[in-house]
Amino acid sequence: MQHIDLHDLGRYSDVLLSRDGEVITLRFADLADADALQSYFRGLSSGSRYNRLMGAASELPAGQLDRFTHVGEDDGFTLVATTKRDGVEKIIGEARYAIDDESNDLEIGLSVDDTMQGRGIGAALLGNLACRAAALGAGRLFGDTLRSNDAMLALARKAGFAFVPTPGDWKQIRFEKKTALAPDDIPCASWRLAAIAASAHAA
Ligand SMILES: CC(C)(COP(=O)(O)OP(=O)(O)OC[C@H]1O[C@@H](n2cnc3c(N)ncnc32)[C@H](O)[C@@H]1OP(=O)(O)O)[C@@H](O)C(=O)NCCC(=O)NCCS
């Protein structure tokens, strides 16, 4: 699987649009985002937090916050979705992927701030993750979610994921999809960078 250049993370940022046209920036989270990311998790409704963390918690546990803000640690990467309000950046969503080099799969998870849900942002994040998976050369994209999480199940179904049992946990279900050879939607930055590198190599 391809790996990203950890010294130049800004190149991998993307701009997404909500269904009603609000501009959302998607970029890798780093240490400087720790407080804002924790505030984001604290600000989620208890139901959204429960669904995202798959258990009751009032905030992101310290160990997870540490992992979420160390790009590439354990082959895990967190993206924060941000908007600007009165010139101030605000985290309104996050998506995380982890690379499994052995299986060549990308495991994903995501959330959107409750006040921003239902505006197509989850679908845009999922599409972006699929594009990044394709650019990285992953064969498959998958995530586990609670069987009771109707919103995530509907989102995954609409995005063409299939469902299989989560190994070892009957309360969860796995949504999975083979990676497309080319992004169906607008190509993400990772895809563009991979295409540029491939054409430079061929020249
Ligand atoms: C799941 C989640 C990310 C969806 O984000 P979102 O921005 O609200 O989703 P979108 O607006 O892009 O919705 C896309 C599609 O998903 C489905 N969907 C989203 N929310 C839904 C809900 N509450 N009930 C039923 N279907 C829903 C719909 O099919 C929708 O398409 P439509 O708007 O054309 O009907 C969001 O609900 C969330 O953050 N939940 C808490 C965290 C979580 O559960 N994460 C998943 C763990 S991996």
How would you describe the overall organization of this protein?
- By secondary structure, the chain is an alpha+beta fold.
- The protein has a single domain, classed as Aminopeptidase (3-Layer(aba) Sandwich), CATH 3.40.630.
- 32% of the residues lie in helices and 29% in strands.
- It is built from 6 helices and 8 strands; from the N terminus they run ββαααβββαβαββα.
- The chain has an 8-stranded mixed β-sheet with strand order 1-2-3-4-5-6-8-7, with helices on both faces.
- It is globular.
- It binds coenzyme A.
- Residues 48, 51-52, 109-112, 117-123, 143, 145, 149-152, 154-155, 158 line the site of coenzyme A (COA).
- Coenzyme A binds next to helix 2, strand 5, helix 4, strand 6 and helix 5.
List keywords for this structure.
Aminopeptidase, 8 strands, 8-stranded mixed β-sheet, 29% strand, 203 residues, binds coenzyme A, alpha+beta
> For the terminal residues, how far apart are their CA atoms?
22 Å
CATH architecture: 3-Layer(aba) Sandwich
- Total tally of structural domains: 1
Largest beta-sheet characterization: 8 strands, mixed
Radius of gyration: 16 Å
Q: Which CATH top level class fits?
A: Alpha Beta
CATH fold descriptor: Aminopeptidase
- Which ligands accompany this protein? coenzyme A
Helix fraction by DSSP (H/I, runs of at least 4) = 25-40%
Structure summary, number of beta strands: 8
Query: From the helix content, strand content and strand pairing, which structural class follows?
Result: alpha+beta
N to C succession of SSEs? EEHHHEEEHEHEEH
